[in-house]
Amino acid sequence: MTRLNLLLMIAVLASGIYMVRSAYEARRLFTELDRSQSEARRLDADYQRLLAERQAQATNLRVEQVARERLKMRPISPAITFNPDAPAQAASGAKVAGVTR
């Protein structure tokens, strides 16, 4: 009888330890889930902000402004256009555009 009581006591202690461990693991996983969800919300907000910035940077006026200021581009005109298919205009067009053969 005392062996049975000892065996049952060990089983109850093991069961209690297992329950405490599983409750701790559940709390840890819940905390990790909460952190992941808040990180997902932060990343979603960053994504929305970046989309808005990309849309603002991609307007035609902004692209034209960057092309003129940073890339030193200018609008095309017939005076600086080069047509390689036209042999008579090729020599004069190459000199004007700064292209040499």
Q: Strand share of the residues?
A: under 5%
Rg value: 37 Å
Total number of helical segments?
3
How far apart lie the N and C ends? 109 Å
Helix content: over 70%
Q: Would you list the SSEs in sequence order as H and E?
A: HHH
Poorly predicted sequence stretches spanning 5 or more consecutive residues: none
Mean pLDDT: 85
Beta-strand segment tally: 0
Main sheet, how many strands, which sense, barrel? none
- How would you classify the quaternary structure? single chain
Class from secondary-structure proportions: mainly alpha
Envelope shape: rod-shaped
Family: Belongs to the FtsL family.
Keywords: Cell cycle, Cell division, Cell inner membrane, Cell membrane, Membrane, Transmembrane, Transmembrane helix
Subunit structure: Part of a complex composed of FtsB, FtsL and FtsQ.
Membrane topology: Single-pass type II membrane protein
